[in-house]
Amino acid sequence: MRLAELTSPQVEKLVDPIALWPVGAVEPHGPHAPLGTDTLISVGMCERAAGRLDSAVVLPPLPFGVTRYGAAFAGAIGISEATLRAVVLDVATALDRHGFRRLVIVNNHFEPEQVATLRSAAAEAGALYLDLVRRRNAQRLTDEFRRGSCHAGRYETSLMLADAPQLVDPEVASLPSNEVDMPAAMAAGRTDFVAMGMDRAYCGAPAEATAEEGRATFETLTDILVELVKAQA
Ligand SMILES: [Zn+2]
User: Tell me, what's the pLDDT at 58?
Assistant: First the structure.
């Protein structure tokens, strides 16, 4: 159930609907994965979850996020914190007016300013924010994700191989692994991929990615989302 594919009378008939909103970014994901990787992961989660929930619809994804780390690479398009906050509040207001029970924001772009903006805007709007980097959620995900060396690495590339293999360049097989502790690099004040040691805009081990791992991770991500909605929405 994608909201944008429904007619207005169809939406009117929904009983106490919940809106799942996929959020991502347009930023470099190595030489092998698409700029919209984070958005595609969020869409994959929301569509799977909508199939397991009553009266849940998937909003058109918000493709742009606060992204500065990758700004030097071709194709990166970021928006400011103020713009992101304004979009979240406006969309939440519109859903409220139409009787949606709850907005659930599903984000897979983890630059700290993006996460902080979404957390506070969600709180302000009375929306739920699925916080995947919180320990209780992160500990259910793969080893690479938990280590924080996971930008366009095995974790994200596996998810792409599961849902959009045609968008992953076969060159991925020859990419050396690149272990970078992103949280530590950020804490040390490094604010772009190259300074973090990611001169090709990836870290982790993309060559180890498999569609099978991606499907398993999507199942876990969907479980986490469905549990949040059932408990709090
Ligand atoms: Zn990503």
Answer: 98
Count of other CB atoms within 10 angstroms of residue 148: 19
CATH of the domain at 131: 3.40.50.10310
**Which string of b and e fits 158-197 if b means at least 16 CB within 10 Å?**
bbbbbbbeebbeeebeebeebebebeebeeeebeebeebe
> How far is it between the farthest Cα atoms of the chain?
53
The answer to whether residue 213 is catalytic is no
The predicted model scores a pTM of 0.96
Tokens 């293999």 appear where?
Answer: 165
How remote is the CA of residue 176 from the centroid of ligand 1, in Å?
18
Residue ranges of the chain whose pLDDT lies below 50: none
Is 111 an active-site residue?
Answer: yes
Active-site residue identified among 111, 144, 163, 213: 111
Specify the pLDDT at position 183. 85
Measured in Å, residue 110 CA sits from the centre of ligand 1 at 8
172-195 pLDDT, tens per residue? 999 999 999 988 888 888 889 999
- Overall domain count for the chain: 1
